[in-house]
Amino acid sequence: MTAFPDAPEPPRADRRPVQRSAHGVAWTDDYLWLRAENWEEVLRDPAALAPDIRALLEAENAYADGVLAPTKPLQETLAAEMRARLQEDDSEPPQADGPWAYFTRYRPGGQHRLVCRRPRAGGDDQTLLDGDALAGDKAFFSLEAAAHSPDHARLAWAADDLGSELLTIRVRDLAAGADLGDRVVNAGEDIVWTRDSAGFLYVELDEQHRPFRVMLHRLGTDQSEDAEIFAERDPAWFIGVGGALNGLTAMIDVHGHDGSETHVVDLADPTRPPRLVAPRRPGHFYDVLDGGDRFLIRTNRQARDFKIVEAPRDAPEEANWRDVVAHRDGCYLIDAVVLARHLALLAREDSRPRLIVIDRETGDRHDVAFDEATYALGFDTVYEFDSPGIRFAWSSMARPEEVYDYDCATRARTLVKRQVVPSGHDSGRYVTRLLFAPTADGETVPVSVLMRREVVCDGSAPLLLYGYGSYGWSVEAGFSTSRLSLVDRGFVFAIAHVRGGTEKGWRWYEEGKLARKPNTFSDFLAAARHLVAAGYTSAGRIVAQGGSAGGLLMGVVVNDAPDLFAGIVADVPFVDALATMMDETLPLTPPEWLEWGDPVRDPAAFTTIRGYSPYDNVRAQAYPPILALGGLTDPRVAYWEPAKWAAKLRATMTGGGPVLLHTDMDAGHGGKPGRFDHLTEVARNAAFALACCHRL
């Protein structure tokens, strides 16, 4: 019985064959025409999209809406219950900085954040920036960053009006409650104020949408007068800039997929040439923290899972590095916060996070303990270097997020916020487990599981299996209110922590990139089959979901094992991998050759990528229902990737389906930015999953 029995006839994209060749191999691309020749212009002006491409995307949207029309009442029910789990006036716990404590909040019914502060000594809240008012009736608006000046007189803020991640930075006079005349365009989200509060550093993007230099903007001047502080001319490297907690320096982070380097800017004299700490070299990653009298550096030099070293402030070169926290294989150091008296480390072992606190003077160290078999843990904002402690957020897949202030000396843990679920939530009704799925090459893949306590592992339950597995990015096993809508309807929810992430350390990442990228895909299938063997579900009852690079994962596994899956949700999927990695004009292609391989110059990389690229490996076989999602102004995974994939699937498959394509014509990589608008997208995906498993 098909999940969508009355699906209408789908749109058929024209075949306009283009012959391509490389490394002695020739092939035909029938749908290359969907890549707009003026794609850079479309990122800045979506109305510039060619009429024939727009017509097809709109026809695809109408078709997807038509097929999903029977689920519309369910979508509305799901969105309503997801919204009922959100605290409409949610707010962050304020964090002190000098005479003020800063925080963000929402108003009831509001879609966007409000940036606020209150006097540290007590008093009325002040709304510094109203995201709802700024959004107005715009089709897209996302407040990406807000940074207050050291003298607390101004707020620099960055927003995206198109979804293309080309931000505009403005500056608000907090006494007047109005923006100054300053306007910085084509910027990234990084903003670091100078010590005199008279200007700020930011990252400028070039015409190919690549971050290529750090600029200094002085208040009251035109952007054309901004000073170049650092420039990176090699498109294979990304750059960012972040301020030190003590306010003395900014760190320019130059990073790629095979190394990094840091340049230190003196925020009291920002036009002085930045100081290079250690020049980049293949395989060496490091980042620098300003510890006041010395620098602390997280590095993988002779330490695969990273260690902490220190260096004199006036001589931070590698020759002067001295170990502070030794390397231990399998204990991956993810992040660090340095305070005047303590160092806090976030680490991970076998997919479980750890929090380690070290006294900087004595070297004494201790772990902060947590319950649950699998959980998410991360640092939260601290503004003051002299703070007695850190702030962290913890949650599990069953327990809502809790935010704590932790005194590093007394070890007192103070709860400052517990996530409220207004419609009610009983963590005791759910079970979380951490499984390990064996692979053919002798590895074990961590799998985090959430389900209702009454679910019986007899193979009858439907299961949603999520995966990503790229760039060293770990999928955290944290709390999600929207996820409960599936779990409360009998689904098991699972995360496959496949190679390509760092859930089992840096080795786990290295074994899921370049020539070893296929490990990511086989790991996901091993996790799915282990869940079947353990009775959590059965073959044909699994809905797989992944986005971006996780969408590539979806495309590969559905090509390789379509019978395992009841459905596929591929969100902004990187499915035209070969063509994208051969197109040097695209924003992310040159930087990502060290992640995926360079198929233009390297025949072996060409063969590897061509061997798994989902678009290039669509087969004459039956496919399960597929929901592919794109964004017209997405600068990371272009809209044409899911569009080409959907067209080729329909032209090639021998049965099954349907294949649905929905392109958000007013958004980019992250979809709709408003918190309630976003829930409508999540509800649509959940309704699709339920329909695939005949759970309407």
What tags apply to this protein structure?
serine-type endopeptidase activity, Oligopeptidase B, AB_hydrolase_fold, 19% helix, single chain, serine protease, 8-stranded mixed sheet, 696 residues, Rossmann fold, Peptidase_S9A
What this model shows, in words?
- This protein is of the alpha+beta class and 696 residues long.
- It contains 13 helices and 39 strands.
- A hairpin with a 5-residue loop joins strand 27 and strand 28 (402-407).
- Helix 3 (72-84) crosses helix 13.
- The radius of gyration is 25 Å and the shape is globular.
- The mean pLDDT is 97.
The rounded distance between the terminal residues' Cα atoms is 14 Å
| Mean of all residue-level pLDDT scores | 97
Class based on secondary structure composition and strand pairing: alpha+beta
Beta-strand percent range? 25-35%
How many extended strands? Answer: 39
**CATH homologous superfamily caption of the domain at 25-83 and 432-692:** Alpha/Beta hydrolase fold, catalytic domain
Q: Percent range for helical residues? A: 10-25%
Largest sheet properties: 8 strands, mixed
